[in-house]
Amino acid sequence: MTHVGRVRPANQDAFLASNELGLWVVADGMGGHAGGDVASQTTVDAIRGFVTERVTQGLPATHEIPTFLRSAIGHANETVRAYARANPEFTGMGTTVVLFFLPVPSSPLAWIAHAGDSRAYLIRNRRISALTRDHTVLEERIQQGLLPKSTPTTHPYGHVLTRGIGVSPAVEVDVSTVELQQTDEVLLCSDGLNKMLNDEDILGVLMTVRSHPPEQKCQALIDQANVRGGRDNTTVVLIAPVG
Asked: CA 109 to CA 103: how far, in whole Å?
């Protein structure tokens, strides 16, 4: 689900939830950049097209999947830049992206790929853990020991991205794998959620509605982000086991 929030005039987020492809994506158009909504939707569409075309030819081997996902996001980067070249009014447009890929539903192996500060979380045994690390100046300074780990994402450096789609000819993509357990849930979100709720807040909301369908869990997170101020567009995609 996605929501414009309580402050922004338009929603620049886009998402994909495709059980058929085993592919879920969240993209967040960069605030203040021309065409953020175009960049995010173009990215989602380009990734979906890339994965669809190649999966119809057969799934890549397990060891090939990280390269496959980097190529999918690289293709999106090229597509966004080509659009901006053809439409100068969108020069400089960009977006973050995070995706979750579960190519074989019966297998526990899944992959996460991202560029920017849209996040993936693992919900397991009533605990939450981050599957991604923000590509921001703030996170770089924390890793370098220049700022404490407790520095909130509302710090000015928290809004300065170090990676994104469309901003340079090549994009560096982090890819990781996770081995799922039967009752695990995976949450993808734009930073409109974690600007308003910290990790424990997110977990608290999910635990409050843990017996509800995934759609209601997504709605509960968005509602709480808006209660806290809704300063940005909020998009949440929850991947949960069926049955």
From this structure: 8
